[in-house]
Design brief:
single chain, about 300 residues, Rossmann fold, six-stranded parallel beta sheet, three-stranded antiparallel beta sheet, 11 helices, 9 strands, binds adenosine monophosphate
Length: about 300
């Protein structure tokens, strides 16, 4: 496994890996998994997909300062270089790109990639500037790594929607591949930030996956349920946890992330074959967790 700390090194190694694959008559396609490190099984699942579906598998580890707001956790974001490299090696990564902040942003930046529309709600609304930071760094990383496909977790569903829009709008020659959310056995979505949770917060954090699961059952089974009813039920379930402070609970179309009309019942959504997303962001102390379910409404027998 090669490790590149500079952009020049990354480009050189990638050219060399491609050349080696071509000489072997093997697949020279690049699969790419961008991360901020402190890797867990969720990241590992993306690396596995990348390994299975591409001849060359590239991982980046970069805690991108421009996607953090002034009062967010940039300074205490967890890091574990050695463990990350071990996990990468285990998952068959060919190249790890781990640049410094100075390498990525050597001078005052005058270019920002802004995706509008899909960034208006959810984390786009509660973390102003966050998706500008994400779209800008991912564009830079795509220009450095030149991947054929890039793998992203549905845990950050809005990020997937934003990047899909960016790639389409700017004709970037890369396929965005969304991958399922990996959870702990008890349902908590894996996140590098779970390490911040106290024992009590960790126990209460289960309310996210639990409330989403109950709501999904209602959405799939109750034809007359309205978006407002679903949202208020999830809100009430989360509010019953004393340590939880809700940032948002929203039911939107996916991937356009538009609000649903209150007169749209689950039955009418089913007929329109619209995919929807139920997304939550909740703070436990200073730790902000997100989770979501994306659903394609299925035709269900209504006599149950
Ligand atoms: P991060 O290091 O948090 O920026 O995440 C890097 C990538 O891993 C993003 O595409 C995330 O969506 C993905 N990811 C993080 N947690 C999970 C998870 N629990 N399941 C699947 N993918 C995840």
């Amino acid at each position: 496994m090669k490790i590149a700390k500079t952009i020049t090194e990354a480009r050189t190694w990638i050219a060399q890996l491609k050349e080696e694959r071509r000489n072997l008559g093997a697949d020279p396609k690049i699969g790419f998994v961008p991360t901020m490190g402190y890797l867990h099984e969720g990241h590992a699942s993306l690396l596995r997909r990348s390994r299975q579906e591409s001849g060359i598998s590239v991982l980046s580890i970069f805690v991108n300062p421009i996607q953090f707001g002034a009062n967010e956790d940039l300074d205490r974001y967890p890091r574990s270089e050695e463990a990350d490299l071990q996990l990468a090696e285990r998952e068959g990564v060919d190249l790890v790109f781990m640049p410094s902040v100075d390498e990525m942003y050597p001078e005052e930046r005058k270019t920002t990639v802004t995706v509008t529309g899909v960034t208006e709600r959810l984390c786009g609304a509660s973390r102003p500037g966050h998706f500008d930071g994400v779209a800008t760094v991912v564009s830079k990383l795509f220009n450095i790594v030149k991947p054929d496909q890039a793998f992203f977790g549905a845990k950050d569903a809005q990020q997937v929607a934003v990047l899909q829009k960016m790639v389409n709008d700017l004709n970037m020659d890369v396929k965005i591949v969304p991958c399922p959310i990996v959870r702990e056995e008890d349902g908590l979505a894996l996140s590098s930030r779970n390490v911040y949770l106290s024992e009590d917060e960790r126990r209460e954090a289960l309310v996210l996956s639990r409330s989403l699961q109950t709501a999904e059952a209602k959405i799939q089974q109750e034809a007359d349920a309205t978006p407002a009813e679903i949202v208020s039920e999830v809100t009430a379930t989360i509010e019953a946890s004393p340590l939880a402070v809700i940032d948002y609970v929203e039911l939107l179309t996916f991937p356009n992330l538009k609000p649903l009309d209150d007169d749209q019942t689950m039955k009418s959504l089913r007929l329109s074959e619209q995919s929807i997303i139920l997304a939550v962001a909740v703070k436990f102390g200073s730790t902000r967790l997100i989770d979501n379910h994306i659903m394609k409404l299925k035709e269900v027998p209504l006599h149950v």
